[in-house]
User: Fold this.
Amino acid sequence: MTTTHEPFPAARFIKEIGRGKNGARSMTRDDAHDLYEAMLNGRVSDLELGGILLSMRIKGESVEEIAGFLDAAEASFEPFNAPPGQFAPVVIPTYNGARKMANLTPLLAMLLAREGVPVLVHGVATDLGRVATAEVFAELGVVAARHRSEAEESMSQGKPAFITIETMAPKLAHMLSLRRILGVRNSTHTLVKIMQPFAGPALRLVSYTHPEYLEMLGEYFTTAALHERGDAFLMRGTEGETVANANKAQQIDWFHGGLRTTLVPKQTLVGELPLLPEDKSAAATAGWIQSVLKGEVAVPPPIAEQVAQCLLVSRTVASRQHVSEPIA
Assistant:
């Protein structure tokens, strides 16, 4: 990560990406990296920064651009270390919360942790008009980590770790906060959902909302992703969250070594709808999750299937890493 604070001349990039959806040209991976790195380090003026963010919003990111942005994003904070064990860590981003359905992201995280998987959940502390995962976690006694080592300690104790983006990667948090000024999301909202925050290989759970991102992210994970850093699951989000919809199983695609495998086919509705909490508040959702963890309420089948696939692939990623490690 570049440490200079010299102003970064961004006009030549804006000239290419700012010509509208049909006239704009995409940057190379290296150029995208350099530009986003300068943005994160405050080397781009506010005027140019607004122009870049809105230009990318209109144009849409290419695979090379998202790869370059991600290279810079992941280098902007210190990576996590996972505890040793038979499972590679599972990364669950949570940046949307829930409004129409109960937010069951904490259930997914706690079910995985209960099986011995190191689980890192990162995201926002609150989301106006929605029930954030952090709020449900708080009702369950899972407190946000105050620093990286605290999150690592939680994972080593077999507990799901939750950390806010402000604590984990403050430079990225600042980029996310610009939505309040500009009124629209920017490329960083995609980056935080696909980044791999561990020093070693991990399994990323990634969701998309808009169909065009299914195509772009699918191409990214098969062509531009650094495969030695682990695998990824990609599915349509449940109100933007990466937990399976309790009422209907979304398709889950597994990306591994440049290959794409469908693990869970798309379904319309599950055979028997689960008994979900009618009250969508954080407290009521947490109470329902506790009932599930105690075995008083059945795990919704799509989430049980998601957990099973995570366990299988997480173990596969870990064993692959052990095979590739040099013998002392």
About this structure: The chain has two domains: 11-74, 90-324. The mean pLDDT is 93. The radius of gyration is 20 Å. Residues 11-74 form a domain with the Transferase, Pyrimidine Nucleoside Phosphorylase; Chain A, domain 3 fold (CATH 1.20.970.10).
